[in-house]
Amino acid sequence: MHYLLHLALLSAVLVQEAQGDIIDDPCQIMPQGPPDEHTTIDEQADSMCHNGTFWWNYPRGSIRLHFQHKASPYFRVCLKDYLVGSIFKLYDVTSDMKHAMPSVTPESSNEVCTSAHHYEIIILFEAPKHMLYMGEVAYRIQPIFPI
Ligand SMILES: *[C@@H]1O[C@H](CO)[C@@H](O)[C@H](O)[C@H]1NC(C)=O
User: Fold this and answer.
1) Mean pLDDT per segment of 10 residues, for the chain of length 147 residues?
2) How many domains does the chain have?
3) For residues 139 and 127, what is the distance between their CA atoms, to the nearest angstrom?
4) Pair 35, 57: CB distance under 8 Å
5) Which residues line ligand 1 (CB under 6 A)?
6) Ligand 1 atom closest to the CA of 138, numbered from 1
7) Measured in angstroms, how far is the CA atom of residue 62 from the centroid of ligand 1?
8) In what order do the strands lie in the sheet with 51-57?
9) Has this prediction a pTM greater than 0.90?
10) What is residue 110's predicted lDDT score, i.e. its pLDDT?
11) CA dist., res. 74 & res. 115, Å (int)
12) Fewer CB within 10 Å, N- or C-terminus of the chain?
């Protein structure tokens, strides 16, 4: 009985600490995901952020993540694994076509990048079919200077 109470208190503390982190860092995207596997929602990365993470708890359904670069219409977004980020299927859906991207891998040096000329890049994150606790992917936004 005491053990369970202790566990509950410890969980509450951990959740609060996690939420504290989120409030501190606008570049950490932490969506309230869609309620079921058939729904897709949109999320926006803060355009002031050049890097950060996308942290999705209990992922279900799909999230379209919009990236913008204020200064350059030509830019790229590079993703890599942060914590179990390889569970997501990734698609570039910036245009009407849905382009499959490779998943990020646990080797931290392997980045997956996509570029666009539209001031906006939209990446679709598809949750795995089986419910998992979380996945987190690091993103980096970089202007491309046309020659
Ligand atoms: C973002 O960039 C800073 C500076 O280069 C680095 O210290 C930090 O670890 C990066 N954050 C992520 C999530 O990659």
Assistant:
1) 48 50 80 93 95 96 95 92 96 94 88 91 96 94 82
2) 1
3) 17
4) no
5) 51-53, 138
6) 13
7) 26
8) 28-29, 51-57, 134-143, 75-83, 112-116
9) no
10) 86
11) 7
12) C
